Amino acid sequence: MLRMLEAQAPAKQTATDTINTLSGRLNNANLLEDRRAAILGLRSFAKEYPASVASGALRGLISSLTKDGEDVDTTKVILETLLMLFSPNERSPEASDDIALWLADEFTQRQDNITMLLDLLETPDFYSRLYSLQLITAICSARPDRTQECILSAPLGTTRLVALLDDPRDAVRNAGLLLCTDLTQSSTELQKLVAFENAFDRVFRLIEAEGSLLHGGIIVQDCLSLLANLIRGNTSNQSLFRESGCVKRVLEVLPGGSRDGTLRDGDGEDNDFENPQKGKNIWGLLAIIRMFFIQGSVSSRPNSETFQKHGFLQRALDLAFSSRWEGPIRAEALHTCADMIRGNTKLQEGFAQLQVNPFTQPTAPENGRPQTNGISKVYVIDALLDLTLRPSAPELYSSRFAACECLKAYSHGHGPIRLHFLHRAIDGHTSGEDETANVLTTLIHGPPGSWSSNPYGSWFAAVLVLHLIFDDPEAKKLLINVTEGDAENGEEVVTCIQAITGNLIDCLQREQDQRISIGYLMLLCCWLFDSDEAVNDFLGEGSSLQILVQVASNTSDDEYTILRGLSAALLGIIYEFSTKDSPISRRTLHPILTSRLGRELYIDVLKQLRRHPLIRDFEISQQGTSSLAAHGSLPSVYFDPTFIDFLKDNFSRLIRAVDRDPGIEILPSSSSTSGINRDALDDLRAELSTRLSALQKAESDILSLESALNQAHAEHKRAQETSAAEVARIKNINDALHKGHDTEVQKIHQGHRASTEYLQDQHARELEALQSRLQRAESRVQDVEQEVQDQRDRAKADSERWRAAFSDAQVERDDAREELATARREIQGVLAERDRARGEAEEARKAGGEQARQLGRMTELEQERQRIAGELADAKLRIEELMTVAQEQEVGRGEVERRVEKGRQRVEELEAQLAERDRALTKANQKVREVDEEVGEREEARKAVQGELDEMLMVMTDLEEKRAKDKVCFLFRTLMTQWLKVDPETIKSAR
């Protein structure tokens, strides 16, 4: 029995069939309730069957959202369904990332879809706003570029989105904040539009409402993300931020500001509680501030000066040297200071005058407040040196690195500051009375503590000195003169370079931390490069070369690839800039490179160094922010960016150094010659000494010749006296000749003056004659102008008259068109009535009887035809008269003639139509004769219907006489009268 019932039961419906049924119901339903019920059914399948629902009902859902947008309940269900399609169940068999792309394409391919979602943001309903924002966010995640274009094209698109930041409902406001953040990540245009919608002020108000940086949560972090998108690389928004007073708002929300979110009691002490998010918030705001100081940006300098006007440097330094904050916040504050002063001369010079609290290790707070020790403030440079060079825990490396960057920025591109810094370091090291950490003391004597406990102390000191002397010959020379040791006490006196080299050799032999050796090698490479004086100082201790060769040739351990490469690079620099007069000459150094080390090994070691990941991938590594290992090991930071650029720029030169002839010396970079041959220079020097002896012999010959020259001078003097007497005599003769010449010149001048006066009189008379002729010509020109003006006036009057006539003609033409249309309609009515009458007459003839009346009707038609022919002849005469009048009155006679010709053609066409009607009348007469033959047979039938036919014929006769005589004749009379004013197209349409 059960089996029979099961067999009779209907087939079980699948989910796909149900979805298809609901989709069809949604697309075809006319009532709102039916569509809503279909959408509710689809929503239940959207999570598990997103592909099926999207393929069958997506366009229906969008269409229903457009039609039923005013219904809040339906809108909510539609938006929920669409959101489920974007985030289906991960365990669903139809779940795929392609569904989101497909859905986003469907929305973004039509601008109206995005505009519809933006329109929903203006509705007061909570769910309509929230779900619309979430849906736009999902579309933007799948197709960010297309979504940004649609938002830009939508009317008031950005205005609506930014306005949501003021929504009192937290969920809507937060969703709007996330959407603005997503949209502004890559679109510069959207960044500008959002910023100009007063977004900066709205974001700061939101940060303050959420408890500022100290008490704010994830919402504050989202606000900072939006600020970062608007500021990053956008100089226009940075200018707007700067000019709208937002810099002051930034300092107010930073710790210590008036709106930092700290609650203060009557004693002015902080009552804030620990917030795990505040560190991220402060770090994020400092990172945003760094975006204003990008090196090379045109807006970096005005941004720096604006921030400094509000005292940002001091605030950031207080933040960096406060024990209240963690290491990342301190490091970011120092990095921000470094970016702010780098390359800004004014800020660099004022930076050293700032004072801060000395750096202390973070301590546990007592009763919720950090402990204070009451230590007096120190100058910021001393505090930065102590932080950089003093030993500290590995977790404070980021702060030490940032302090080093701050010191490098302090002297960056400022020669006087670099020399002043170097002088202070030299004086402090020489006197030994420097209370703060000293870079030279750290380099020469080692860092405070031990190398193993503080390897970065020596590394930071080497990097700082490298930046002080890099590409600065004066600084290099100043540091070369520094010595170590007291000769009076029997100590060995060594130079600074030799002391640093000794420390390097000691570290290499004891296998100390590689960072220490790398720091020394970086400094020596940059110091010795392009400085033969520094190379000679290094070669004064020749035993160091042997250790460098051993390290460079040790290929047994791959761990020391960097040390091998740097040692080889230093050997190449020493050989490249050594001279014949060096303590170890070039000819002695060359075999060390080519034989003991080997040319192939030298080149291979340098190439291995260049391919090492720490150098090859240096630009993409995280310097200063690398994470520490779980057991507290040191970060993997080995090189300074300046040295990396130096090595890459001169790598090919170091490769070629081993092949350079030892007889060729490299001149300093300031020389225009690349090198000099010392053998040729020695030959030139010998030749110079020979020529100097020849020059001395020539000088003795010159003395003997000078005595002979004196005698010649005496004889010359006597000859001059004789010549002077002769010149006096000739002068007297010349004076007499000048007197006669002056008399003749006066006579010539008088004759010239008389002729000039005569010519001037003659010119004046001719000028008067020309002026009189000119006056006559001017009067004649005035007469001609008056005549031309009169002609223009007459032409203008004629033009006005013809324009008026043309206007009258246009009015008549319009009246004629109206009459023509009326006549056409009446003709059509007459023709219809005529056809109807003919049909009735035909039926009457078939019934037997109206030949007599038809004969009478034919006679009347013949008379009417003759009368129309007469009127047609009258119309022709009227046309000829109008042609005559038009020829006399119109200037454009050619146009009138063409219209007359068209009128004649129309008359000919009417004559042809009249002939056609004559032929039709003839056929009708023939038909009448045929009917006469049947009269006798149907005479009796005619008598039976004679009364009825008489009444019908009387009606027809009255209609034909009235319309044929009045309307048809009036039509042709009007046509003949107005044809001259009707264009060809009107005639065709009438026809």
From TrEMBL:
Domain of life according to the entry: Eukaryota
Coarse class of the protein's main subcellular location: Golgi
Entry keyword Coiled coil: yes
Keywords associated with the record: Coiled coil, Golgi apparatus
GO biological process terms, semicolon-separated: endoplasmic reticulum to Golgi vesicle-mediated transport; Golgi vesicle docking; intracellular protein transport; vesicle fusion with Golgi apparatus
Domain Vesicle tethering protein Uso1/P115-like head: 344-658
Official protein name in the record: Vesicle tethering protein Uso1/P115-like head domain-containing protein
CC terms in the record's Gene Ontology section: endoplasmic reticulum; ER to Golgi transport vesicle membrane; Golgi membrane; Golgi stack
Disordered, as annotated region: 781-801, 834-856
Location in the cell: Golgi apparatus
Coiled coil recorded as keyword: yes
Coiled coil: 681-722
Biased composition, class Basic and acidic residues, residue ranges: 834-848
